[in-house]
Structures are given as C-alpha cells and as structure tokens.
Amino acid sequence: MFKYSNTNKRYHTLDYFYKQKFNTKIAKISLNAGFTCPNIDGTVGTGGCIYCSSGSGQYAGDKHLSLTDQFNQVKKVMDQKWPNSKYIGYFQANTNTYADIKTLRNKYEEILKIDNVVGLNIATRADAISEECLNYLEELSHKTYLTIELGLQTIHDTTSKFINRCHTLDCFERTVNLLRNRNINVVVHIINGLPYETKDMMIDTVKYLNMLDIQGIKIHMLSIVQNTKLAQIYKQKPFSLLSKEEYINIVCKQLTYLRPEIVIHRLTGDPKSSDLIAPLWIVNKVSILNDIDKKMAKENLYQGMNIKNDSLKN
C-alpha cells in the first residue's frame, strides 16, 4: 500500500531511506562541537527557548572531548550492533552554523576525514546562516551527503513568542528557500504539545510544512525537563499536557498531511528519565512507536493520504 516501505510501516522511515540510498545500515553519531546560540548569547535573545536545558542537544557528545574522540566513543558501541555500517556525523548541540567559516570548516571536515563517514547532519537556526555560510554549505554538499536541520517548532506566532523562539516564520521560510535553491537537503523540527496549542494548530504546522520543499521532518513531544524556564512556569502554573493517546492521534493525523516522499526522521523525543518532570509516558519510546503503527494499521492510515493539493509553495 505504501510506496516507501519494505516493512509494515505506513510512513517513510529514515531507516528505509538510508538503506535505499546507501544500500547499507547508516548510524548517526551525535556530536557537541561547543557552539553557543544567538538566542543565548544576546544576539537575538537571552536564555534560549524556554524548553531548552543548557542549550539544545544536551545529550550529544561531551564537548570537553575532541570531535574525533566523541565520534569514536559512540562508534565503538555502534560497531557491536552493526559491524558493517557507515556513519553520518550529527552536529546536534546548540546552533552549529553559528561561527566563522574557518571554525566551521575545521569542525565539519574533521569528521569527514573519518573512515566510513558518508554524510553530515547539521542542526541550526534559520537566523544563523549567513551568505558566506550558505556558500560553504553548498561547497560541502558537493563533497558529502549534507542535511541541514532547522528548528521551527510551530508556525503560530503567539506560541513562538511564548517559547522565546526569537525568529519569525518569514525568516524560516526564506532560509528554507535559500538552502533549496542550492540543492541542500532540509529537515525541520516541530514540537507537539506546546502550551495552549490545540490539535488543529499542530496539524496546521504540518500542513504548512508540506507546502515547502523540505526533505524530512522530526516530530517531538514537548518534554518538561529540569533546569528550564518551562519547568519554572509549569511548577508555578501547570498547563495541560497531551496524554499518550492524544499525542499518538495527533501524530497519525499529521502524517496523513505529509507528502509520501518526505522522510520521517523522528516521531517522538527521548529525554533522560532522570531529568524529566513531565509527561512521564514519553520515556517509553518503543511503546509510542508501536502504538502509532497499530493505529495506522487499524484505521487504514498512511502518509500523504489526506493531501488534496501537493503543489510546492514558491
């Protein structure tokens, strides 16, 4: 029934995509290159997004180790599971284009020199890619399989201001277009369950993204973790959080509004249980993914089935 699957999945999984493209198992290795963020250092804001604990990607590698040492530390574990795999270096922590080109070049190409690295995923913000950086990313995309991951989280201005995102939707869309004009792959992060958003608002975020020329999406459930502004807000005035069932219903609906060729990189987050305040159900990632599969099969849902007009937005 679903074109982009060789299993029972009814959506376009990252594992399927990588196996079709590289004809082998691909493992992504998260890295902390020691970058900061323009929303932390005062360039566009301070304190970061309210859900962010000590910068995004806090569970990536140890920034006190070299990037090569971080990579090899994880690779050693991965090799025990998948001895013949190849690797993608994932620059995850904070804003990974927020530096001068010399610094970026040194960090990215340190990883590209490692055997069996076939690509890079670089997580960043839409307001942190300069023209000079775009030129370098285009150059890099001709050397390796390059993906830029952009945090959006929501299309709704009121929510964006509440979470202290500090960039506009216009800025995000402009950056997507600039990257795609240079044929650079784009993956977008969104968060379900942001304070005071309705189910329809979350689905509208996905409908908007479906009109853009993006290649992948990561869907997260809002997690309230220790040492964040969001945790302070929640303790002072608790707001409603999605139940597991509500989250699964929303994700399944969102998938039906995404073009089948868009690769689903993630369908839930996985915060450390020791840091998590709420919701506690989020720690059981396997159960969430299994329940998504069950619901889609039971209700005969599949990615893209509700798209009426799949023309791309110019």
Secondary structure elements and their pairing?
Blueprint: H1 14-22, E1 26-31, H2 67-81, E2 86-91, H3 101-112, E3 117-124, H4 131-141, E4 145-153, H5 157-162, H6 169-181, E5 185-192, H7 199-210, E6 216-221, E7 224-225, H8 229-236, H9 244-255, E8 263-266, E9 276-278, H10 285-298
Parallel strand pairs: 1-2, 2-3, 3-4, 4-5, 5-6, 6-8
Antiparallel strand pairs: 7-9
Describe this structure in words.
The chain has 314 residues and is an alpha/beta fold. The protein has one domain: TIM Barrel. Helix content is 36%, strand content 17%. It has helices at residues 14-22, 67-81, 101-112, 131-141, 157-162, 169-181, 199-210, 229-236, 244-255, 285-298; strands spanning 26-31, 86-91, 117-124, 145-153, 185-192, 216-221, 224-225, 263-266, 276-278. The chain has a 7-stranded parallel beta sheet with strand order 1-2-3-4-5-6-8, with helices on both faces. It has a two-stranded antiparallel sheet with strand order 7-9. It is globular, with a radius of gyration of 19 Å. It starts with 13 loop residues before the first helix and ends in a 16-residue tail after the last helix.
